[in-house]
Write a structure and sequence with these properties.
This protein is an alpha/beta fold. It has 22 helices and 25 strands. Among the domains are: 103 residues, OB fold (Dihydrolipoamide Acetyltransferase, E2P) (Beta Barrel), CATH 2.40.50.140; 215 residues, 3-Layer(aba) Sandwich (Rossmann fold), CATH 3.40.50.300; 174 residues, 3-Layer(aba) Sandwich (Rossmann fold), CATH 3.40.50.300. Helix 9 runs parallel beside helix 10. It is globular. The protein starts with 17 loop residues before the first helix and ends with a helix.
Length: 725
């Protein structure tokens, strides 16, 4: 048998076959390390073991509500199967000397072969009354000798169909035994000693098999500390070329006398093409970019723009000024729809400038692709807009100086490096390009500190003049007449409507929906699907006259573009979609956004969707439709109705979510966190990263140990997953 390492495929473990491999992949578990790091999301505490006679039978049993108990006892009646009907439940009694209780099991006839009269057992479950007698239905039962007192805190994992917490526990125990010693500590020794931290293998053992709830808490704290170090320090090491010196071309002369009159005339023409004045925030952000482009130090800047704040215009001007200086600029968009929209905007800006942008998509005809690639290679094309199609190996740039990634999370780190790093000099200096990242998802300040700590940041909060305030209403019934009435009023006046659903069809959701909260929506009949909504709209007598269409991520690219173009042109009046419209779709005539099952989305996603409307001069309305009565869902709806500030909502979203569940962690380039909560643990994050930075700056053996440990553990924990984003 081959030696098993942390990086080994999880299938190398005994008992993990192809079927289990497929199920584990749904939980993002591919390697042995992934399995070990998959810590429980909660624990069942069975450690308060009592006696049957001590259970209070008073108020607890009103309405047959029941409550959980644990006890040790002896099976006092024979647990035999009814031979006339195997469908009948298996029933037997257990006593402990202080009383007796009936145990009833449905679909568990195998227990008759496992237990016999007189066997000592451990039982945990909920007690109810049946004909005046205490009973437990389908409780947990095990041979007494197999349940020690230090194994009564039971791990509960996030699971998928076909896997149990026992499966995970068994495989984790094996994995820790075989290669737990390969786990390295990324915590400075002084901090570990001060806080009483244990070796990493022991910390994971405590997390998966705690002797007490307190032990589980201490393990999670240590693992969160380590996870945040890997996130804060490891990500910077990973994305910065491991500390190598980088240089970039100075795009704009620092002396204005270096810009000739012809260029200034073209620049003035482009500014006149704008047709409006930039907001103060846009002006400040563009000045930041210009200052960066005057330096030979590669720009590494993040532009955060709230929905509808006009960050794209800053990107467009940055590209054009780079092109005017004779260099090439690339804008990477996550979808063909958005790339085409950017191309249209930038083309209008470049009118009469003597330059033309090019657009390269996956669906571009081969003959056109060849022509565009030739223009890119010979330098004729200087403003280049596209999708992943720009990241292929057969594209050669003539003099690339600026790369802008719109919603950078859609592009893997290694993919972007194809553009960001041009060459390496003999002295090891890396020739790089300027890097500008734009995100329309406001990032909570606390989160940005960890993820983008090594990036300069420009924030655009202010909305361009003329943007309408959006009125947001909460609708607590899908059958409310308010929905149909609102649509009818707006459609009859020539306006258009968005309807967003949480799933495509009965059993299909968009893959990788990190914006979802709660239980999976596929197979949940209470969740309205895109196609179900289409049927409902088509059946409404006063709405069926308006043309409607569906849009979702897995549609063919050509069909998606065609549907969007028809919606923007006004041919389609009602667009029924998944969250594929969340990023960048711009139709000033669409002024109603109806979000079905709004409780299934986080605040950040709801805000992004709402941002698709209010782009024209008409009054806009967002209807949040949800029949959920959960406190947290109602809290979200209330906040959406009260606030239009994306930054405020992002902070609240982070607070409301569980560990690693914040919408945008994967979107911002962070895979799911297992132990840390980016809201409640930010004090730990700051403390941990500052401690590591101090040690690394001081140098020495401890610094070298930490550097090596962080690099290795980051590769295991995050690197592969970052490539999937």
């Amino acid at each position: 048998m081959a030696t098993i390492h942390l990086s080994s495929p999880v299938t190398d473990l005994y008992g993990v076959g192809p079927s289990a491999e497929e199920k584990l992949a749904k939980l993002d578990i591919y390697t042995v390390y992934d399995l070990i790091a998959f810590i429980p999301w909660r624990y069942d505490d069975w450690s308060s073991v009592g006696t049957i006679g001590s259970f209070d039978m008073g108020e607890r049993y009103e309405n047959d509500a029941g409550y959980d108990i644990s006890f040790r006892g002896t099976i006092s009646t024979n647990p035999s199967v009814n031979i006339t009907s195997r469908k009948k439940p298996l029933t037997f009694f257990v006593t402990d000397g202080t009383g007796r209780i009936r145990l009833t099991f449905f679909n568990s006839q195998y227990l008759a072969g496992k237990f016999a009269l007189g066997d000592e057992c451990f039982v945990h479950g909920s007690v109810t009354l049946f004909n005046g007698q205490m009973q437990m239905v389908n409780p947990y039962i095990e041979k007494a000798e197999k349940i020690t007192d230090d194994a009564l805190v039971r791990p509960v994992y996030h699971l998928t169909a076909g896997l149990t917490s026992n499966n995970i526990s068994k495989w984790v125990r094996t994995a820790l035994k075989l290669c737990g010693n390969e786990l390295l500590s990324c915590i400075p020794s002084a901090i570990a000693e001060e806080k009483g931290f244990v070796p990493p293998s022991r910390a994971y053992e405590m997390a998966h098999f705690p002797a007490s709830i307190d032990e589980a808490r201490r393990a999670r704290e240590q693992l969160a500390y380590e996870e945040l170090i890997l996130l804060g320090i490891g990500m910077k090491l990973y994305s910065s070329g491991h500390g190598v010196k980088e240089v970039a071309e100075q795009v704009i002369p620092s002396d204005h006398n270096g810009i000739d009159r012809n260029l200034l005339a073209k620049w003035n023409q482009i500014k006149s093409n704008l047709g409006f004045a930039l907001t103060k925030d846009q002006t400040d952000a563009f000045k930041d970019v210009q200052t960066d482009l005057m330096s030979a130090v590669p720009m590494n800047r993040l532009i955060q723009g709230d929905v509808g704040s006009g960050k794209t215009m800053v990107a467009a001007l940055s590209m054009i000024i780079t092109a005017l200086m004779g260099k090439q600029a690339v804008l990477l968009a996550p979808t063909s729809v958005l790339a085409s929209q950017h191309y249209k905007t930038i083309s209008g800006l470049m009118n009469n400038s003597g330059m033309e942008p090019v657009l390269l998509l996956g669906k571009t005809k081969p003959s056109e692709k060849a022509e565009i690639k030739e223009k890119i290679a010979n330098g004729e094309a200087r403003v280049i807009i596209g999708t992943h199609a720009l990241l292929t190996d057969d594209i050669s740039f003539n003099d690339l100086a600026l790369v802008i990634a719109d919603e950078q999370h859609r592009f893997g780190v290694r993919q972007r490096e194809k553009l960001l790093f041009k060459d390496t000099a003999q002295d090891g200096t890396v020739k790089s390009v300027h890097n500008l990242v734009m995100t329309a998802t406001p990032i909570p300040r606390t989160l940005a500190m960890v993820i983008y700590g090594d990036m300069a940041t420009s924030v655009i909060r202010e909305k361009p003049a003329g943007r309408q305030k959006i009125t947001t209403w909460f609708v607590n019934s899908k059958n409310s007449k308010a929905i149909e009435e609102m649509m009818s009023i707006k459609l009859s006046s020539g306006e258009q409507v968005y309807i967003v659903c949480a799933k495509i069809d009965k059993d299909e959701t968009e893959s990788g929906l990190d914006n979802m909260v709660g239980e999976p929506v596929s197979g949940d009949d209470s969740v309205t699907s895109v196609f179900e909504m289409k049927k409902i709209i088509d059946s409404m007598s006063n709405l069926s006259q308006y043309k409607s269409a569906v849009l979702y991520g897995s549609m063919k690219e050509k069909d998606k573009l065609d549907t969007m173009e028809r919606f923007i042109s006004g041919d389609i009046k009602i667009l029924i979609s998944t969250t594929v419209i969340e990023v960048g779709v711009d139709n000033p005539n669409a002024n109603v956004m109806i979000i079905m099952d709004a409780d299934r989305f986080g605040l950040s996603t709801l805000h992004q969707l709402r941002g698709r409307i209010g782009r024209g001069d008409k009054k806009s309305f967002c209807l949040l439709v949800s029949e959920s009565r959960s406190e947290i869902a109602l809290q979200r709806m209330k906040m959406m109705c009260e606030s239009s500030d994306g930054f405020e909502l992002a902070e609240k979203d982070l607070e409301l979510r569980g560990p690693g569940d914040f919408y945008g962690t994967r979107q911002h380039g962070i895979p799911t966190l297992r132990a840390a909560n980016l809201y409640t643990d930010m004090k730990i994050a700051t403390e941990a990263t500052e401690a590591v930075n101090r040690v690394i700056e001081e140098g020495g053996e401890e610094a070298e140990r930490l550097n090596n440990a962080i690099k290795k553990m980051f590769e295991l924990k995050f690197a592969r997953k970052m490539e999937q984003m």
